[in-house]
Specification:
By secondary structure, the protein is an alpha+beta fold. It has 2 domains: 5-54; 58-106, Roll (SH3 type barrels). 42% of the residues lie in helices and 26% in strands. It is built from 2 helices and 5 strands. A 5-stranded antiparallel sheet has the order 4-3-2-1-5, with helices on one face. A hairpin with a 4-residue loop joins strand 1 and strand 2. The chain starts with a helix and ends in an 11-residue tail after the last strand.
Length: 117
């Protein structure tokens, strides 16, 4: 409606003759979006996962933990595998998967089982 044939011909004449330049200009915004997503989303998420993994590996006997269900308990037995024994009330011990821990509230001092009685 507002474009006259003369303007349309000038726009075609002003287009770059090299198709590679046009291709790079079209791909540039996509590349920028990928870089922004990587910096703002993927990198911090990988960092949080790494911190969570190291926290779960560092859980020892005597630590006070919070499960993903919100249950607070004290670790009474920590095995090398995925199972933990957690005391949630005096005399009430449950088995819990290590991956179900959402937070470690207090870290206890290392337990020395080798001291003479």
């Amino acid at each position: 409606m507002f474009v006259t044939p003369a303007f349309a011909q000038d726009a075609v004449a002003a287009a770059p003759a090299d198709g590679t330049t046009a291709l790079l200009l079209n791909i540039l915004p996509i590349v920028l979006l990928v870089v922004i997503f990587w910096l703002l989303i993927f990198r911090p998420q990988q960092k949080r996962l790494k911190e969570q993994r190291s926290m779960l590996e560092a859980v020892r006997r005597g630590d006070t933990i919070v499960s993903t269900g919100g249950i607070i308990g004290k670790v009474t037995k920590s095995e090398a595998g995925q199972d933990l024994e957690v005391e949630i009330a005096p005399g009430v011990k449950v088995k819990m998967l290590r991956t179900m821990i959402s937070d470690v509230r207090t870290k206890s001092a290392p337990v020395n089982d080798n001291k003479p009685a």
